[in-house]
Amino acid sequence: MAAEVFDNARSDRAGTTPRRAILLSAGRGTRLGELTVDRPKCLLNFAGRTLLDWQIASLRANGIEDIVVITGFGAARVANEVDARVTTFYNPFYQVADNLASLWLARGFMDRDFLVLNGDTLVAPEIIRALLDQATAPISVTVTRKADYDDDDMKVTLDGLSVRAVSKKLSRDVTHAESIGLLAFTGEGVSIFRQAIELAMSDPTGVQNWYLSVIDMLARQSVVGAVEVPLGLSAEVDYPADVPIAAALAASWTLPVAIPA
User: Fold this and answer.
1) What's the CA gap between 67 and 23, in Å, rounded?
2) If 0-12 CB within 10 Å is exposed, 13-18 middle and 19+ buried, where does residue 243 land?
3) Rounded alpha-carbon distances, angstroms, from residue 128 to 6, 21, 98, 117, 120
4) What's the structural domain count of the chain?
5) pTM of the prediction?
6) Residue 39: C-alpha distances to residues 50, 54, 169, 235 (Å)
7) Res 33: pLDDT
8) I want to staple 114 with a disulfide (CB 3.0 to 4.6 A). Which of 20, 88, 226, 249 is the partner?
9) Quick check: 237 and 29 in contact, CB under 8 A?
10) Could you tell me the pLDDT band of residue 237, with boundaries at 50, 70 and 90?
11) DSSP code of 35?
């Protein structure tokens, strides 16, 4: 079964970075209504496994074993769900701060190349593989293209493979793709991002901002690139209507198909 392939497949990526991943899983997911009354969004079940478990499996299938999960709502429950190899880091301000603050609090883990993955997004192992193989900029944003974009999409302006802007507020005429919430920070990109979030959090409004607002700022400095992946290999779980889409994607991973080598 593909679920077993997720756990057992290991790509031969010795010496390839990044080897650490930071998962942003502090939020409850209030827009999902009753589904998250008593459980954090990352513990919703899809095809027999939690969203968080699928994420960890995709990372491990690509040789990433150093995984940090930033928790908030239901922190103890999340910690009980993961195995001893996973580090959990509690954000006590999750109710009053957005994910920029989560990353700022966890900046001590930014001492090497790393990935950041939004805790509400299912991603196929192929997407992580593509990011590891194709990321060339100091900061790389994984994007996908769609026929149309709505107000809640994290829209991206591209100039070739360079990212020029990232924002939900971009107009349609400058929107070329959508960020799926998976980024890589390599080489100088690690210190660039860490310094940028420290600067952003020195402003009183910093706690209210998404970390992608910092990526938008850094895009103007030509240090942010894009890695384009096919549509349909990821699913964001934000609203009740997203749940059956994510469930169908996860169910497709339980079919007897192998992960690409």
Assistant:
1) 8
2) middle
3) 13, 11, 24, 10, 15
4) 1
5) 0.90
6) 11, 17, 30, 19
7) 87
8) 20
9) yes
10) very high
11) G
Please answer whether residues 241 and 192 qualify as being in contact, where contact means their C-beta atoms are separated by less than 8 angstroms.
no
Summarize pLDDT for 68-120 with one digit per residue, the tens.
999 999 999 999 999 999 999 999 998 888 899 999 999 999 999 999 999 99
CATH of the domain at 149: 3.90.550.10
The gap from C-alpha 149 to its chain's centroid, in whole angstroms, comes to 19
Q: Which of 65, 68, 103 is nearest to 211 (CA)?
A: 103
Residue 257 lies in a domain: no
| 3-class SS of residue 139 | strand
Bridge partners, residue 183, by sequence = 116, 141
Secondary structure of residue 245 in the 3-state scheme: helix
Continuous H helices in 62-147? 75-81, 99-105, 125-134
- Rounded CA-CA distance 118/25 in Å is 7
pLDDT band, very low/low/confident/very high, at 3 (cuts 50, 70, 90): very low
Q: Which two tokens stand for residue 238?
A: 């934000």
Instruction: Reply yes or no on whether the pLDDT at 127 is more than 50.
Output: yes
On whether residue 135 sits in a domain, the answer given is yes
- 260 belongs to a structural domain: no
The whole-angstrom distance between residue 141's C-alpha and the CA centroid of its chain comes to 10
> DSSP 3-state helix, strand, coil percentages of the chain (rounded to 5)?
35, 25, 40
pLDDT at 170 over 70: yes
Element (H, E) at 55: helix 51-61
Is 259 among the domain residues?
no
Distance between CA atoms of residues 207 and 93, nearest Å: 9
Q: Which domain holds residue 25?
A: 2-252
Q: Say if residue 18 is preceded by a cis peptide, omega within 30 of 0.
A: yes
- The helix/strand/coil state of 126 is helix
